[in-house]
Amino acid sequence: MTARIFQQPKSAMQSGKAKSDVWVLEFAPADARWADPLMGWTATRDTQSQVRLTFPDKDAAQAYAAKYGIAARVHAAPVKTLKLQAYADNFR
Hints:
It contains one helix and six strands, in the order βββββαβ. With about 90 residues, the chain is of the alpha+beta class. The strands form two sheets. It has a four-stranded mixed β-sheet with strand order 5-2-1-6, with helices on one face. The protein has a two-stranded antiparallel ribbon with strand order 3-4.
């Protein structure tokens, strides 16, 4: 049972910083998915793929994984850069 720990990025429709400081522990899929023949929905037997735990910081997520013996990889948060641009640059 492996998991990954990462920081939730902003969505494309989000301009503020809400929910961007939350760290997430998400389990890696153990089984392949298949199309259900009756309904056509995607199905899996892996119930761990539905689990998504949130933590206030990276250390709390790592402590939880260590406490329960979960092998977890930490993915670093992407560097946030500002693209400073003047309105006049749109017309160059």
